[in-house]
Amino acid sequence: MVVREKILDLVISCFKRHGAKGMDTPAFELKETLTEKYGEDSGLMYDLKDQGGELLSLRYDLTVPFARYLAMNKVKKMKRYHVGKVWRRESPTIVQGRYREFCQCDFDIAGQFDPMIPDAECLKIMCEILSGLQLGDFLIKVNDRRIVDGMFAVCGVPESKFRAICSSIDKLDKMAWKDVRHEMVVKKGLAPEVADRIGDYVQCHGGVSLVEQMFQDPRLSQNKQALEGLGDLKLLFEYLTLFGIADKISFDLSLARGLDYYTGVIYEAVLLQTPTQAGEEPLNVGSVAAGGRYDGLVGMFDPKGHKVPCVGLSIGVERIFYIVEQRMKTKGEKVRTTETQVFVATPQKNFLQERLKLIAELWDSGIKAEMLYKNNPKLLTQLHYCESTGIPLVVIIGEQELKEGVIKIRSVASREEVAIKRENFVAEIQKRLSES
Amino acid sequence: MAERAALEELVKLQGERVRGLKQQKASAELIEEEVAKLLKLKAQLGPDESKQKFVLKTPKGTRDYSPRQMAVREKVFDVIIRCFKRHGAEVIDTPVFELKETLMGKYGEDSKLIYDLKDQGGELLSLRYDLTVPFARYLAMNKLTNIKRYHIAKVYRRDNPAMTRGRYREFYQCDFDIAGNFDPMIPDAECLKIMCEILSSLQIGDFLVKVNDRRILDGMFAICGVSDSKFRTICSSVDKLDKVTTQVSWEEVKNEMVGEKGLAPEVADRIGDYVQQHGGVSLVEQLLQDPKLSQNKQALEGLGDLKLLFEYLTLFGIDDKISFDLSLARGLDYYTGVIYEAVLLQTPAQAGEEPLGVGSVAAGGRYDGLVGMFDPKGRKVPCVGLSIGVERIFSIVEQRLEALEEKIRTTETQVLVASAQKKLLEERLKLVSELWDAGIKAELLYKKNPKLLNQLQYCEEAGIPLVAIIGEQELKDGVIKLRSVTSREEVDVRREDLVEEIKRRTGQPLCIC
């Protein structure tokens, strides 16, 4: 949990640094709100039992609830983050960090703005977070739904097969081209020459020069949709360069992304395995963050169909938790599970009352303190407790100290002890804590 | 079409019937029967393609948290979590749903308020009703014998929601519990100390913590002549006496016990003599001398523990906030020892207001038998804990902030990067990126050529304190104009010094540690 908290803290501070407002929605929505928003994945929702009231389902992601919120409250512009759990009845593969209940960290910008600036900020945020988490090198693949659709059109894919071919292309990060080609031709009935034409494109990836190249492509430049997408990507790369992150971005024509509601730029971040990690289990957890532009979703909720353009990203924190925990295990790193600063102890019997008074003084001064719930604990047991939980300081009260009107302060690490006058001991502790 | 309309009418009527029965608190079997009829009717109705009416709402009894409410929530959680951590608690989390069998039989009469998940071919699941039963399950499952933990999360109850009074179907609980076999009453005293620290820090007004003990209650019932079988139901009647929100008098409670629950009037009177008493440790002493109560072993145990508790509470400096109140009963079945409840006291100044600030805001107690219900060998792990009722606190804090006219900021942005002229988007993008990379909270408008006035207005609305203005002349001179939004004072800062200057003004440390 401590690892989780640190990671979520880092993600949330990045969102706040970019001026996002927090929001929250209920764990379940009316079933009708969620129905027909997720395409192929709709069968994976958790439904609540019909107990005579409204039909409900657990939310599948944080994006559809966001669109519902915008439409419901007639909000036209909003920059928000939402950290919360979502639920999917997938086949869980816990080894790769894929659960049925998992946390998502979403950041979205809703509103009509000048093109590509918010989109560029989303990518900047992804880079800041992934760098900040120190997970190693990463790459963000970028593409555009209109380029994908345009590419399919010029290659000869029949419109009815668009989504199906899309989900095959999406597997290129896990499967080799020839296997993907096989799936498209044999399982999805695509003509082989169409598949080959697609192959020429989807195996391309590069920087802004590839965007320029595609502009010149004889087939693609005939397609209006593709040209729009390429134009936006060109502008995006300009902004990403000004943001200093262009070197982390790759225009990748094989990026397709499952969800139906994307309408423009789409992106996905993957970790690159470094040579030093070669000895480790190949943690092929897939992408750790993703997102894109979805201009039509809010309009599906608005009674008059009013559109609110949106762009956003989602950080796959569960996979990140898993990676960080694995790394800590291999390094044998120990992490404290409490933040206690001072332990109140006694070497003799019948000092419970004194300990209770002392600890109340510490708590009332805002100092994090603990004591054992024993009337007469042994000193050794108390010191051992400090060592095993990582508490740095001990205050000791005993017969001698009581007579002399002092408290002994002991450093657990150095074992050095010093006697401080009773009336000064809180101030002394505060001084030591602020110095460390 | 007419057939469909007739069917829809039947569904509507049956739905009303079910709601009516629930309001009248009819028997569970009758309700179930009528619900089954309703479901059958609905099934006949089937999917309706003609109806494109789209209902934009959150489910009944639930709500979204707007940015403003999130800001209030964050403030409140900060205070609470800081207190839990100050007392050395670890944090855990559990899934939102549990196996249905885990939750069954743990909540007594309230079990019918549990949300079930649909049987979709896997395990039968239910949404958690509180954080205590999942905690007990966690302890038994991991064979833990001692832990001090806090858990902040939402729980779910299919209750009758009263959103204006802060009663929802989905709501947050903040729980702190100490599990383990320890010397008596020390952890119990710490729980009360925590409740007092939190309620004081939140500055929501004066409060009182009522304390009682399950054994004293049971002992009292026994010597008054209540039959064992009536214990729980008489308990819930007595509990109503204590609820300030419903303002129930002893007469009304007595009528319920005698008239509805079949208690003999003289037994009710005897109970009345006890439950109308409350006081400090002197009341404990008094009752230890009570001729009837002192004959009851259970009651004596409870009184003895309360005496010890009061000693510790005095050493903790909070005895003036605690009241031993014999009318405190508390619903849940699983309490075995001390029980407590914190209520806010209405101050004279608030007399004219909606009594929102009144009522219970925290509660808890000792529950030594719960973990044993999960352990295969029935091994017990004694537990004591508390739960803060934050939903009501959110409303109170929000009201207080409004009354003080304190603006609740929904973002933490420190600087807006603005431009004074057109064609400066590139410069703004570069500058804002520098600020982000230095850990400064900054924004810019998503417009290529925004007007300066609009940018300044944006700052005022959002409460952003500083503006970094890029202008053509300043660019040539290598400076940025740094403007304070409130004072409107501007000063030119060299580009390379800007980050440091902003950090100095916003009180941020120079390195991002």
UniProtKB/TrEMBL annotation, chain A:
Under the heading Pfam families, the entry gives: HGTP_anticodon (PF03129), tRNA-synt_His (PF13393)
- For this UniProt record, give its keywords in alphabetical order, as a comma-separated list: Aminoacyl-tRNA synthetase, ATP-binding, Ligase, Nucleotide-binding, Protein biosynthesis
Q: Which family does it belong to?
A: Belongs to the class-II aminoacyl-tRNA synthetase family.
Q: State the Gene3D superfamilies in the record.
A: Anticodon-binding domain, Bira Bifunctional Protein, Domain 2
Q: Which PROSITE patterns match?
A: AA_TRNA_LIGASE_II (PS50862)
MF terms from GO for this chain are: ATP binding; histidine-tRNA ligase activity
The keyword Aminoacyl-tRNA synthetase is assigned to this record: yes
Show the taxonomic lineage: Eukaryota, Metazoa, Chordata, Craniata, Vertebrata
- Name of this chain's protein: histidine--tRNA ligase
> What reaction(s) does this enzyme catalyze?
tRNA(His) + L-histidine + ATP = L-histidyl-tRNA(His) + AMP + diphosphate + H(+)
Gene Ontology BP, a term: histidyl-tRNA aminoacylation
EC numbers, comma separated: 6.1.1.21
Q: Which SUPFAM superfamilies does UniProt cross-reference here?
A: Class II aaRS ABD-related, Class II aaRS and biotin synthetases
Q: Which CDD domains match?
A: HisRS-like_core (cd00773), HisRS_anticodon (cd00859)
Cellular component, GO, one term: mitochondrion
Which residue numbers delimit the Aminoacyl-transfer RNA synthetases class-II family profile domain? 1-347
Q: Which PANTHER family match?
A: HISTIDINE--TRNA LIGASE, MITOCHONDRIAL, HISTIDYL-TRNA SYNTHETASE
Question: Where does the chain bind L-histidine?
Answer: 61-63, 88, 104, 108, 257, 261-262
